[in-house]
Design a protein that fits this description.
This protein is an all-alpha fold and about 240 residues long. About 25% of the residues are buried. It has helices spanning about 1-30, 45-65, 70-80, 80-100, 115-140, 140-145, 150-155, 175-185, 195-225, 225-235; strands spanning about 110, 190-195. It has a two-stranded antiparallel sheet with strand order 1-2.
Amino acid sequence: MKKIIILIYGILAYFIFLIAFLYAIGFVNNLWVPKSIDSGVEIDTLNALLINIGLLSVFALQHSVMARPAFKKWWLNIIGKAAERSTYILLSSLALLLIYWQWQPMTKVLWSVDNAVLASIIQGVFFMGWLIVLLSTFMISHFELFGLTQIVDNLKNKVTKEPSFKVNYFYGLVRHPIMLGFIIAFWATPTMTIGHLLFAVVTTSYILIAVKFLEEKDLKKALGTTYTDYQKKVPMIIPFTKL
């Protein structure tokens, strides 16, 4: 019965992630969704700024702290290995949903592209960013990344193997293509408002800091010279550069 509950829990966590991921596409670029980055009633700028930074900070702290090996080692003793990844995904998704719900619009336009062709190209780049994110998850192990492999293995009384280090497709161009896709998606917009710029600046800053000073450090510790050699050959986030 416990294994069935963990299976249902993991599947539910994955579907909540899918909702949060798909909603993010509409939220960031004001498409289709009832509450987007520039919709809603505006409040005064200072309060909006503080609330929005607070919301993004909640996500950043949850996302970073729970991903650290020391925390995971402690957390595994409480939640168990089978449900650990699903719980991380669930809480990350809920933090995103909180952002969508409570985000305060700051709609003053900083720049706007009036040319229809150029605006369409920028929209295409926006969707390309999200496509890079999605494809990159499958180039490693999508179902393990989001906890489904673990809950199925648990149901079958199998121990999920530690993922092996592979350099597939986009990972031969940059070490963190998922993060590259997010950065592209967050910045590619025909109309940039103060709120959108705040979102793009804060999320990009978080990505660069977290990847360089947290994730890269953990990967070097876990993989040793295999990862340091990879670092020498492949840039971190920007293709064909040293960054």
